[in-house]
Amino acid sequence: MSLVGKFATVGGATLFSRVFGFAREMMMASALGVGPVADAFNLAFRFPNLFRRLFAEGAFNAAFIPLFARSLEEDGEDAAKEFASEIFSTLFTVLFVLTALAMVFMPALVQTIIAPGLSACVDDPAASAHFIPCADRYEITIAFSRIMFPYLACMSLLAMVSGILNAFRRFFAAAVAPSILNFVLIGVLAWCWWKRADQQTIGFFMSWGVLVAGVGQLLMVTVAMRIAGFSVRLKRPRWTKGLRRLLALAAPAALIGGITQINLFVGQAIASYKPGAVSILQYADRPYQLPLGMVGVAIGVVLLPELARALKAGRLGEAQHTQNRSLEFALFLTVPAAVALFIIPEPIIRLIYERGAFLPTSTRAVADVLGLYALGLPAFVLIKVFSPGYFAREDTRTPMLVTGLSAIANIVLSLGLFYVMAERGIALATTLAGWLNALLLFEGLRRKSLWEVDRALVKRSALVGVSSLLMGAALVGLLIEFRPWLQTGSGVLHQALGLAIIVAVAMAVYFVAAFLTGAVDRRMVTGALKRRRRA
Question: 97-105: long-range contacts at Cβ-Cβ below 8 A with a sequence spacing of 24 or more?
Answer without folding.
Answer: 98/152, 98/153, 99/149, 99/150, 99/152, 99/153, 102/146, 102/149, 103/146, 103/149
